[in-house]
Description:
Number of helices: 0
Largest sheet: 7 strands, antiparallel
Oligomer: single chain
Distance between the termini: 21 Å
Order of helices and strands: EEEEEEEEE
Structural class: mainly beta
Shape: globular
Number of strands: 9
Amino acid sequence: MDEAHLTGPARSHPLHVTLEPQPVRVSVVRFEAGTRNHWHRHAGGQVLHVLEGEGFVQARGAPARRIGTGDTVSAAAGEEHWHGAGPDLPMAHVAVSIGDITWLEPSGDEPV
Length: 112
C-alpha cells in the first residue's frame, strides 16, 4: 500500500490481480486503529467485506457509516469515498476494486 494515501499504518495482501479488460484487484487490507485512507474513487466501483474489527466508510456528501465484522458495503463507479479503522480497534476487510483508482485529498476531520 502507498502510505502517502493513508493517515497511519496499514498493510495489504493481494489475493487476485488482473489488468485486462480493466483492472480488478482483490486484497485483504488491515488498517491499524485510527488509520484510514484519503478520499478516492474507483473507475468501476469497489466492494468491501469486513473480516474483523470495526471502522467507518463515508461517501462524499453523506454521513460516515460505522461498519464491523460481517458487513459488506459498496461504492458505485466513480463515487468518492474513504474507509478505515475506528479509533479504538484495527479493521481488516476484503477489498474488490474495479478500474483505476484516483487518489484525492486527505479525509480530514470526518468523524471516526
